[in-house]
Amino acid sequence: MSRPAVDTVEVAATSPSQSQPFKELGLNAEEYQRIKDILDRRPTSSELAMYSVMWSEHCSYKSSKVHLRQFGDKVPAEAKDILLVGMGENAGVVDVGHGLAVTFKIESHNHPSYVEPYQGAATGVGGIVRDILTMGARPVAVQDALRFGPANAPDTARVLPGVVAGIGGYGNCLGLPNVGGEISFDPSYLGNPLVNALCVGVLPADGIKLAKADGPGSHVVLFGARTGGDGIGGASVLASASFEAKGEKKRPAVQVGDPFAEKVLIECCLEIFAADLVTGIQDLGAAGLSCATTELAAAGTGGMDVDLDLAPLRDETLTPEEILMSESQERMMAVVTPENLEKFLEVCAMWEVTATVIGTVTDTGRLVMRWHGETIVDVPPRTLAHEGPVYERPVRRPYDQDALNGEHGNGLPRPKSGEQLRATALKLISSANLADKSWVTDQYDRYVLGNTVLAQPEDSGMIRLTDRALDGSGEADLGVAVSVDGNGRYTRLDPYAGAQLALAEAYRNVATTGARPLAVTNCLNFGSPEDPAVMWQFAEAVRGLADGCQQLGVPVTGGNVSFYNQTGSTPILPTPVIGVLGVIDDVSRRTPMALRGDGAQLYLLGDTRDEFGGSEWANVVHGFLGGRPPKVDLTREKLLADVLINASRDGLIDAAHDLSDGGLFVAVAEGCLRGEVGVRLVVPEGLDPFVFLFSESAGRAIVAVPRTEEVRFTDMCTARGLPATRIGVLDILESAIEVQGQFRLPLSELRTAWAATLPDLFG
Amino acid sequence: MAVRVGVVTFPGSLDDRDALRAVRLAGAEPVPLWHGEKWLSDVQAVVLPGGFSYGDYLRCGAIARFSPAMDSIVDGARQGMPVLGICNGFQVLCEAHLLPGALIRNRSQKFICRDQAVRIENAGTAWTADYEDGQQLVIPLKNAEGCYVADERTLDELEGSGRVVARYLDGNPNGSLRDIAGICNAEGNVVGLMPHPEHATDPLVGPGTDGLPFFSSVLRALVGAA
Fold it and tell me: Omega of the bond prior to A193 within 30 degrees of 0, cis?
């Protein structure tokens, strides 16, 4: 059988004027010329495929790089104490003590999840889990931040159930507890949902693995699933350009996941790590083999020889270009010394994982690939991995920004009477953004691995890392807490403040459960970087986030940028999603959100102002967006966090819940429903009942304080200068929320309104 | 000498570590077993844990039941060795014909994870002796294929001979016929259970400790027999 002719280096050198489809692959004329300058000839078609995916926005961060540098420039002083691996690797690694380290990262899979919701979301989970695994860590938990179009839109009924089933189908089968996340709805996400997946992993502090091919003569092993025709061109074509016009044609470009293959790959890798059998490892994600080979080579000795025809295939008709671009899932690449190879292959055989030596590390400074003996790639790997184009895109404040901020909405009619306040409360609690999310989260396994201390709807997910019952060591069990948050409306009104508010909320959520916030990951979801107004939003959000992290003393350890989230020329609300990781020395001290304890006093911590810009109230009741988001006060956030952490450690509070979307009423309702307890609320003197119940002022939480600890708790707040206002008392006999002098709402009525929304919409 | 209870890991098993932990918390010695080994390492009882063995390919549990370890486990079970199959383990026991019936897709067509109320209907098996008949428990349930089905005659036979071990309360989560959550063989040494008692052994990470007696029961049965 004869093979189709391939474009070799030899052919390329002798046919300089042959036209090549660089534009179709997403490269512009200047970028194509640069490739020719680097190689001193035209690229072969395989090389062109590699440059196109590696220089895509998705892989090269060419539009965002100049802004993201701030995370390094403004790294807080605290970072040096905890950061074992910073940005630039597959995921950041944080020292949590007891000889353990934790790695975590969030990543987007937005466009594939719109095209094919189930597989798009499933492979989003698979991809981030492999990033965590690649660091040498056992993945221990996942979370998802999801955003969809209006809850009642027909297309949301297509996208949401598919995304949720995909996340569950993949994550449940991998055996990773899903312990939190968020789901919200806004018309701007109708043609462009956001599916951001976060994974947390744990590893010995001295067991970190890096993606580099060191030591000439070492073997390059491709292992895991075979390479197929799925996800070809996904990185450059699907993730970097609007698919609006060509949606049908690109449908097969979404990868197809096999969670069972990933589960055995995880166990296989962990056994390989434990036996110390690899010198470098990289997962195959976006840009598949192109990315893994170039990144490994670029970070190591500098060269690699690969026989591409040795790669095991699912489809024998794939061309070398397709193999290089394929994003088939559940594949890894390892660098293994000759003496370790046999043992490495034995472990793979035990787990029935296909493993194939496809190349060798060299010190030539070139990445050379052959196809049945003919050289089809010969490039300096750094030019693909690190020396791609960098753009300083034009930035322009949106023309409508002043008008948007000027429309403050102070004239919107507000509820006045108790009856009106009661109706507003019910309307908010039953709105899709604030309603019970268990229709979604009950499709995720939150128990597997047996270390889930807190899971959704708690303020943060919390995972136990050490278990005294098993190893009998230590005085307490160490844990980590993670929360992800974002608010596109706040960010639209003020991207600098919006990013900080998202950071502050995630930080506050972690502290609310009693954990000390340590580090940050982020997923920056924006429209087209070629739109100067979008680029302004992006630049402001990054600046806000970098400044905020510096002030709070929590370094950014990594993340992901997702551009081109738009339908036609209309971008999504700018949506930075921020994940914060915290540590808790004794997980038995965690603070739950369920209000409990008959007679416990309910305290409101922080200041409540008349702040409704970007609020759920303005959104749900008036469909209005304008004005300014709530004021950011990071010094206050830090103080609040300190109080919540100390109160947890010293056992001063029974419960705590952060105040965010929908304000105090929503937080109290969630706490009462979870704890099955009633409360009598008193509106503090000088505060308007409407503002008290629904304002979204930041830097606030409610806590339930047992009577025996009330003096100690309030003394602590006074001494530290944190406003603490007693707003009510818990009553197990009452089974209603009563706002004194305003209204009474039985928990049963509240629960019906809260719980029915999503099942009614999605079945 | 501590009682040795083995937990089998198939490719795709997920709750194996949790089952090992539950065995330890109950006071027995947990022994990890690999599906590819016939040798059962002198264990006196075996737990087949939850998960997605072989990715649920073909049918849940259909491939796992042909593993070398299962040959020895089936022999042991026929000679009276206590065997507990949880979730996917229950599916494996049905595929191996140690238990009658089958587990099919939940009626809702969705994976469901929730704290489930169940009632112990038979406290006479090797795995339920530390409960009382009629005792109500809350233990996590998490499955996509948890709907127990069998023909009417088999169901009547199970009911008539006290082989329905546990039944769902407060709403059937998956459409199981006659609200069946768990059954046993005629001798009572082989029990299949859809909910996960290993996740209700430590109140910090589960809804309570209602699941622990499954593991202490077998310990007592074996110590008593020794």
Answer: no
CB-closest option in B18, B36, B52 to A173: B52
Beta-bridge partners for A519: A581
ipTM of the complex: 0.95
User: Where do runs of H (alpha helix) occur along A464-569?
Assistant: 468-471, 488-493, 495-512, 532-552
B83 residue type, one letter? V
List, as one string, the DSSP characters of B203-214.
TTTSS-STTHHH
**Which chain B residues have a beta carbon less than 8 Å from that of A138?**
none
Is B205 close to A450, i.e. CB distance below 8 A?
yes
What does pLDDT average to in each consecutive run of 10 residues of chain A (763 residues)? 77 91 91 96 94 91 94 90 84 92 96 93 94 95 98 96 96 96 97 97 93 92 91 47 39 75 95 95 91 92 94 90 90 96 97 96 96 96 93 96 92 96 98 97 97 97 90 85 98 98 98 98 97 98 98 95 94 98 97 92 98 97 97 98 97 97 98 96 96 98 97 98 97 92 97 97 93
**Helices and strands in chain B, H and E counts:** 5, 11
Report the distance separating Cα A121 and Cα A617, nearest Å: 30
Cβ–Cβ contact A661 with B under 8 A: no
* Interchain contact, A448 vs B56, CB within 8 Å: no
Rounded to the nearest 10 degrees, the angle between the axes of helix A634-649 and helix A495-512 is 10
User: Over the stretch B77-110, which tens digit does the pLDDT of each residue have?
Assistant: 999 999 999 999 999 999 999 999 999 999 999 9
Q: State how far Cα A60 lies from the chain centre.
A: 19
8 A C-beta contact, residue A705 and residue A694: no
DSSP strand pairing (B4-9 vs B45-48): parallel
In the block, which residue shows the tokens 């109950």? Answer: B26
CA-nearest residue of chain A to B140? Answer: A447
CB B196 within 8 A of CB A446: no
Helix (H) or strand (E) holding A576: strand A575-584
Distance, CA of B195 to CA of A330 (rounded, Å): 30
Choose the closest CB to A263 out of B12, B24, B202.
Answer: B12
Q: Is B196 a catalytic residue?
A: yes
Pick from A649, A518, A658: nearest CA to A585: A649
Give CA–CA dist B50/B41, Å, rounded.
Answer: 21
CA A21 vs CA A27, A62, A224, A239, B10: distances in Å: 9, 21, 32, 18, 48
A380 vs B: CB within 8 A = no
Query: Cα–Cα distances in Å, from A579 out to A69, A520, A521?
Result: 19, 6, 5
A450–B196 CB contact, under 8 Å: no
**Tokens coding A377:** 């790639």
Q: Catalogue the active-site residues of A.
A: 58, 109
Of A615, A612, A595, A617, which Cα lies nearest the Cα of A604? Answer: A595
B4-225 CATH choice from 3.40.50.150, 3.40.630.30, 3.20.20.140, 3.40.50.880: 3.40.50.880
- The pLDDT of residue A91: 85
Mutate to test the interface with A, among B20, B29, B204, B210 (most CBs of A within 10 A): B204
Across the beta sheet with B180-184, the strand order is B29-34, B4-9, B45-48, B83-86, B190-193, B180-184, B164-168, B112-120, B136-143
Q: Is B198 a catalytic residue?
A: yes
For chain A, counts of helices (H) and of strands (E): 28, 28
What pTM was estimated for this model as a whole? 0.95
